[in-house]
Amino acid sequence: MAKIGKTLLKLDNVTMKFGGVTALNGVNLEVKEGEILALIGPNGAGKTTVFNVITGVYKQTSGIVDFDGTSLGNQKRFQVTALGVARTFQNIRLWGDMTALENVITATDVHKKSGVVGALFGLPRARREESENRERAMEILRFIGIDEYSDRLAKNLPYGVQRRLEIARALGTSPKLLLLDEPAAGFNPAEKVELAATIKKVRDAGYTVLLIEHDMSLIMGISDRVVVLDFGTKIADDIPSVVQNDPRVIEAYLGVPADAS
Amino acid sequence: MKIRNYWNLRDYGANIWENAGRPVRVAIVLVSIVLVGLLPFTGGSFLATPIASFDAVLVYPVGMFVLMSLGLNIVVGKSGMLDLGYVAFFAIGAYTMAILGTTTKLNTWEIMPIGIAFAMIAGVLLGIPTLRLRGDYLAIVTLGFGEIVRLVVLNSTWSKGPNGIANIPMPPHIGPLKFELENQRVFFWVVMAMILLTIWMIRRLSVRRPGRAWEAIRQDEDAAELMGVPTLKYKIWSFTLGAAVGGAAGVLYASKNLYIAPEMFTLNVSILILACVVFGGIGNIWGVVIGATVLGYLPDRIRFISDARLLVFGLVLVIVMNFRPDGLLPRKKREKAIVKREANA
Amino acid sequence: MFAVLIDQFWSLTIAGIALGFIYVLVSLGYTMVYGVLRMINFANSEIFMWGTFGTIVTSRDIFGYTQTSAPATGPKLALVLLSQLLISMAVAGVTAIFVEYVAYRRLRAKGTNRLATLISAIGISIVLSELMRLLTDSRPVGSPRVLEKIILGEVWGANLRLDTIITIFAAALIYFLLERFVKLSRMGKAIRAVSMNEDAAKLMGVNLNRVITTTFLVGGLATGAAGFFYITVFEYTKFNIGFTMGMAAFTAAVLGGIGNIRGAFYGGLFLGLLEVYASAVLGTQWKAVTVFIVLVLVLLFKPNGLFGEAVQTTRA
Question: In the 8-state DSSP scheme, what is residue C315?
């Protein structure tokens, strides 16, 4: 098990409003280096909004998002990725007409310097970076265990492989923090077990993971800590076994006070 | 191995190419270049065009259309942005040639880089405000831009307004090759060289980082940006490289025509070029080349089309998009070839 | 340079308001379709052009007016004008539905990418304008004068001409009726529901195709009415007048915040005035350039328009 270190990501009193709707209401959240933190809550609780605020899709209405010493909120979205935040999507958003390998290579480009001129004239740095990226991407595919599909177009891959390719592509950007948005959606129990192992493996390789998931057994099995959102407000933040028995959490999920049943 | 694949020309060609070694590939390329280069000598055959001389038709519209379609394809095909004002860059190149050619001692080849630079600058200036917005805005702003450039040259004195500019010098000879009005085969070879250069550029960029960035932007721009692709930068590059090719075509066009006027640079040109790209197969170099050749040549061969040319091209846009959105020769389906190679191995 | 502007300020203003109301109606065609489809109706400029021909054909071929015949008066005048208006609206409305059906519907059903739809739409607009070019042999077509341009009076040195006054009041009335329709009618509510959230509207039982067709129709009717007013004021049309009109009306729509009906109103009036003033200062040959510069500036500094509604890509 990896050692849990200093705070990597900190959301301080973050509020996100859309018109009159408050999607996040003063959320505080800390992700520590080397941990797997699960973010759960009923539908519409604001989980994906948290991801969208962190990755710069939305700019928070108020509050501070601090990532590894940098305050997020004014960067372009690709700059947030360059800082070390990468994500997967709840509804798979691979580039379907590219091969699996190309999907990952494209993500590895983020830390490279060469651009159009280098590519056009085949400058040495561009050539070197191309081959480095190709090797790195292949390595990631092997690490996630889908290297046999490297030359297949993403849109033709089996569903489960697509989900894994999303993780591989995110790893391609060499993130410090990996955000997984329902990576097990649509999986059968066997695939979930396999995915849990993969996520642990990713963490053990030194990545920090923030995970949105609905499957309780998966979460309880792998997370170090669980944060529960309900109607945009944080209602619990503790180790899995404690959260599991928190009456407010049960109420949020079942819609009735725990002692009423 | 399925025999059926063999009457699919694209796959058939791809097969030969993929299975060929380097010497064979070089030979194929050289033979094709020579064969195409000999086209101006086939003027007396069934290919002949009734009104314009055949070698002139080969230069314009055919050659120029191919060149410009390849340039527009970088924008529309590679990165999925609709540029409806492509004629503007063509006009900027042409007027650069016309003005510098008639007022300075610079020759066509010296003006070429200047014309390209002006077109690229215009591309950047237009790209910055519009490429941040969604695609529709780019389409309509470029549509306006194409017309604005025409209106500006029409109403300005430095461009001699509606009278246009005459007495533009021809290019100086290249070694033994002399440029002549009556026989335009040397122009054709120059256009061919420019086409080959453009193809070389596109192929190079396609397999490297810019090509991947464009492909990612075209397929899912939001995902691209979230995966760290600086989308605005690469969109501007794509737009600007397309502009550069249009500018280069314009310089050569002015130097071939010896006279240019605003009425040569209407919206129609943009639409014709777009139709060429769409007809052959958006995003596929060979599709674009074939599409532009067919649509450039046919109206000169079959006379009744030439009057209703634009109507036909408009119909081409609607019909192709609705029934065969990938055009005659769709984007190469690389996977098929790869899977097949693996199966054979 | 500014002498003309100062000298004729009030008559320019009246002309600008009349032109502005024509823009208001055409930009409704852009803004309403954009509201439901989140896509520009490229062919709207050509729908307008067909509308102008509807007006001329009515007076020339149905009522038999010629360039030399005397203008109509009394009830006959009302009858001719009303028929021109309604027929223009009908022609444009039918053209708009045709555009939706041919260029947009099939691609929407297939769910293909936006690029294909954009290209298909530009294709249909080329087809519409080329058809008219071939029908009219590329020649401009003048309108017989049905309405005598009587000067009703004078305000601050500016003449109040009958055609301008009719245009301003009738166009304002049509705008008002359309706005009420969208606000109050059942169909109008469905249109607004779709522009706010397509999926939710579908779940609530809104028939999407019908809403979209109706939107094209309503936009087309407004644009067709604009064609009638345009002919009444300018008395001339050509197969290619759609382009400049389209750019201006689109700019008006963006200026007001595309998708926003009230925005089209303010944007149209603003642009009409601006164009007339700018022409007085710079010369009419630069008015299209002025309009274009306004469009680029708005997109650069205020892409959501002056009255809101996001135009930037909706994010993940």
Answer: P
pLDDT of C207-239, one tens digit each? 888 889 999 999 999 999 999 999 999 989 999
* Chain C CA closest to residue B278: C119
B216: its two tokens: 């990612």
The candidate with the shortest Cα–Cα distance to B48, out of B324, B290, B303, is B303
Average pLDDT, chain C: 87
Closest-CA distance of chain C to residue A49, Å: 10
- 3-class DSSP string for A34-82: CCEEEEECCCCCCHHHHHHHHCCCCCCCEEEEEECCEEECCCCHHHHHH
**pLDDT (0 to 100) of residue C314:** 36
Say which CATH topology domain C3-301 has.
Answer: ABC transporter involved in vitamin B12 uptake, BtuC (1.10.3470)
Domains, chain A, in order of start with CATH, read 1-84+175-261 (3.40.50.300), 96-172 (no CATH)
Contact C102, C109 (CB under 8 A): no
A252 to chain B, minimum CA–CA distance in Å? Answer: 32
Q: Which of B130, B151, B317 sits opposite C119 (nearest CB)?
A: B317
CB-count exposure of residue A172 (10 Å: 0-12, 13-18, 19+): buried
Could you report the per-residue pLDDT of B61-113, keeping only the tens digit for each? 899 999 999 999 999 999 899 999 999 999 999 999 999 999 999 999 999 99
Asked whether A132 and A109 are in contact (CB, 8 A), the reply is no
Containing H/E element for C65? Answer: none
pLDDT at residue B75 in the model = 94
Nearest Cα residue to C121 out of B274, A8, B21: B274
Distances (CA, A) of A151 to A162, B338, C27, C276, C307: 13, 7, 49, 61, 49
* Number of CB atoms found within 10 A of residue A236's CB: 19
Here the ipTM equals: 0.90
Q: Strands of chain C (E only): list them.
A: 141-142, 151-155, 158-161, 236-237
- Asked whether residue B284 carries a pLDDT value surpassing 50, the answer given is yes
Residues C93-110: pLDDT tens digits? 999 999 999 998 888 888
Q: Report the neighbours of C using a cutoff of 3 or more CB pairs below 8 angstroms.
A: A, B
**Which residues of chain A carry a pLDDT beneath 50?**
1, 258, 260-261
C316 touches chain A (CB under 8 A): yes
CB–CB of B171/B190 below 8 Å? Answer: yes
